[in-house]
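Recall that a protein's primary structure is simply its ordered list of amino acids. Everything else, from secondary elements to tertiary packing, is in principle encoded there. The following example makes that idea concrete.
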Amino acid sequence: MRVSPACTLMAAVLLANPAFADEPAVVVRTAGRGDIETTSRQLVFAASRRVAVQLPAQVSAGDTLTLRYDVDGKAFREQFVVADIAIDGERCRLRVSKRSADDTPPRVTIRVESCGRIR
């Protein structure tokens, strides 16, 4: 496979520009809401789902969050451990971990639209 010089240049610009890079954070403040995005990878395809949740006003890496949400009329209450936090402008992503029923860890991210760094 041959990569064109234009693609190489675009990739270099995107990687070098800090406006396109997420910044790590230890503690953030939230507006109290976000979306859990769960992606499970199967052998051939990946399935993704987003669900709105209430969040604490402050979240730190290492926190355990107990979140309640509804999917198709069924209520869930689950615990997630915040592995790390990445900020991109006024948005942030909380990468969290949980175990699924078959003990395969799905990729779980909580996306927060209004978020600010405390530390």
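Helices lie at 5-16. The chain is about 10% helix and 55% strand.
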